[in-house]
Structure formats: structure tokens, C-alpha cells
Design goal:
By secondary structure, the chain is α+β, with helices and mostly antiparallel strands. The chain has one domain. A hairpin with a 3-residue loop joins strand 1 and strand 2. The longest helix has 32 residues. The radius of gyration is 18 Å and the shape is globular.
């Protein structure tokens, strides 16, 4: 009887995990659909624990923040050689961040406002102007 109950518990856990993975993927799809200029990139996205969206069109960079170096290593391995994920690499071991594509901007240029910096970064990730403006507005960044 215990073995039968254990098997049922395992099946329930697997169904719950699959459901939560499905919910996570749906939420990530919605997140990127609201932000990306070219939503067709989502057709080639790779699930590495989070949705990794390829570069293409105006999107020149991408990243996932996975939390552990082990998860990043697995993501880099999974993305290596996959079209749309050039130069996958670990860029932050402490926070478990993997990136691909061009190096994203990390610092404001002299004389550049915070809004201008964030807009430049947002374009690197292929975000729409509306998404960039919404991001800036939520953080109180004035458009100059």
C-alpha cells in the first residue's frame, strides 16, 4: 500500500511541476509579447529554466538570470550552436546570469540621461518604444 501511495504522490508532484512549468512559460510568453518589437522570435525561444529569446531583427542581446552557476552552465551548453544564440556565456556567477549576442550596455554615456540609457539598453534587447517608455515611467525616469 505504501509503494502505491508513493507512486501516486510522485505522479501528483510531476503533474504539479508540469502545471507550474506551463504557467511559468505562459507568463514568460506574455511578458515578452508585451515588450518585443518582433514577437516571432518567441517561436525560436528555448526553455533553459527560463525562456531564452534569440537575437534577431533589432534584438541584438539576450540574457537569463537563473540564480546558480550550475544552471547557467547548463543554459550555455543548451544554447551553444543554436541559431539565434551567438556567443552564449556566463556573465555573472554570483547571480547566475547567462547572456548571448552583443555585449549589452552597462554604463551611461557622459551627458546621457537615465531615460536615454535605459532606452538604449531596451533597444538592444529588441523592446518596443512603448515598452521602454512604460519601463521608464514605472521607475520615474523623465524623458528628455
Amino acid at each position: 500500500m505504501k509503494a502505491k501511495n508513493r507512486k501516486k504522490d510522485q505522479e501528483r508532484k510531476m503533474r504539479a511541476q508540469a502545471y507550474s512549468d506551463h504557467q511559468r512559460r505562459a507568463a514568460e510568453q506574455a511578458y515578452f509579447t508585451e515588450r518585443l518589437e518582433d514577437v516571432s522570435l518567441l517561436d525560436r525561444a528555448v526553455d533553459v529554466g527560463l525562456l531564452a529569446v534569440p537575437v534577431g531583427g533589432i534584438r541584438r542581446s539576450g540574457y537569463v538570470s537563473l540564480g546558480t552557476i550550475e544552471d547557467c552552465e547548463a543554459a550555455v551548453t543548451a544554447l551553444s550552436g543554436v541559431e539565434g544564440f551567438p556567443n552564449p556565456r556566463i556573465t555573472d556567477e554570483e547571480y547566475g546570469v547567462a547572456e548571448w549576442g552583443d555585449e549589452p550596455e552597462r554604463e551611461q554615456r557622459p551627458g546621457e540621461s537615465e531615460y536615454e540609457f535605459e532606452a538604449r539598453v531596451g533597444r538592444t534587447y529588441g523592446y518596443t518604444q512603448e515598452a521602454i517608455d512604460r519601463f521608464a515611467s514605472e521607475r520615474g525616469l523623465a524623458k528628455h
